[in-house]
Design a protein that fits this description.
mainly alpha, 5 helices, single chain
Length: 130
């Protein structure tokens, strides 16, 4: 698997997250200020979907900064754990999201969870080679 292909895998959940955020903000705008239950069901999933995006930005900034391998291994494991927890939390909270937002939020959360599962599978495979 080539390196550019590996990084292009992250573009799909990133695009789904942006579409989900757009749909969530539209659902909040349609509901208006009077209906706070829509906001209470939409914002948690949107915040948890922002977690993997932030993790990916931190990861890319560490890779651009050429962090040395001794500190990078534990840092990348912690970053991956935070991203995985956030994506699973987004999956759970998006199940009770409003109708217009729910499908995109679920797809984005499942895509992030699959990407982080792939990362942990690769880490486990590399550790097994030792």
């Amino acid at each position: 698997m080539s390196l550019p292909f590996f990084y292009s895998i992250w573009l799909v959940p990133f695009a789904l997250t942006l579409l989900a955020w757009r749909a969530g903000l539209r659902a909040i705008a349609i509901a208006g200020v009077s209906n706070s239950s829509v906001q209470a069901r939409t914002w948690p999933a949107m915040v948890f979907l922002a977690g993997p995006v932030a993790v990916e930005i931190i990861y890319l900034s560490l890779r651009v900064g050429h962090v040395d391998q001794l500190t990078a291994i534990n840092t990348f494991v912690w970053i991956g754990a935070i991203g995985a927890i956030s994506s699973v939390a987004a999956l759970i909270t998006s199940t009770w999201a409003p109708r217009g937002f729910r499908p995109l939020a679920l797809c984005a959360a499942v895509a992030w969870a699959a990407c982080f599962a792939l990362v942990f599978y690769m880490i486990a495979a590399l550790r097994a080679l030792r």
